[in-house]
Amino acid sequence: QLQLQESGPRLVKSSETLSLTCNVSGVSISNSRYYWGWIRQAPGKGLEWIGTIYYSGSIYYNPSLKGRVTISKQTSKNEFSLRLTSVTAADRAVYFCVRALGATLGGSWFDPWGQGTLVIVSS
Amino acid sequence: DIQMTQSPSSLSASVGDRVTITCQASQDISNDLNWYQQKPGKAPKLLISDVSNLETGVPSRFSGSGSGTHFTFTISSLQPADIATYYCQQYDDLPLTFGGGTKVEIK
Q1: A-to-B residue pairs, Cβ atoms closer than 8 angstroms
Q2: What per-residue string of b and e applies to B61-90 under the rule 16 or more CB within 10 Å gives b?
């Protein structure tokens, strides 16, 4: 059964870098059928797509994050990662890792989702 | 970016009621629309892909319709287990975007 599990520091200082990893079990992230990505949700707010990475290494980012975001994959560990630099209070959110399916660039729909991890930005 | 506007933002209905949520896209997205259910404290769950394709295991009381810019999500007979926030999401163009959500409560 496919499972995704986020890990990483829950507390990040303002202006520093947020780093999260998603461990995938049950399917290889090298499977050409899937994208892997990150979505976040600020407390009490809606969902924001951060970006997705394909098995080939192609990566698609949300321009709203203005070059602060990097998604990478570690195939040997069946993991993929998120780095978000220069964080501010606005980056406080629950971060979900997801599998994306579908034929469109970046993926079409997200299933399943990791349980999510709340990242707090401290001053 | 394609803006997705959901309405209403919240609703309260009785068990057994028919519930309808709408999602309006800022431009034509053909049939490139999905629906998710998020229960409190949980991750979203994909319910419907490609406007109307019910995911495996999702009760048949859920359905979706529409095309172009106007889409509808319906719960034919609201159940207590359906208390959640529902989101639409378009994949016609990057960045992938979600609607603001509709919180469904029991009256």
Answers
A1: 63
A2: ebbbebeebebbbebeebeeebebbbbbbb
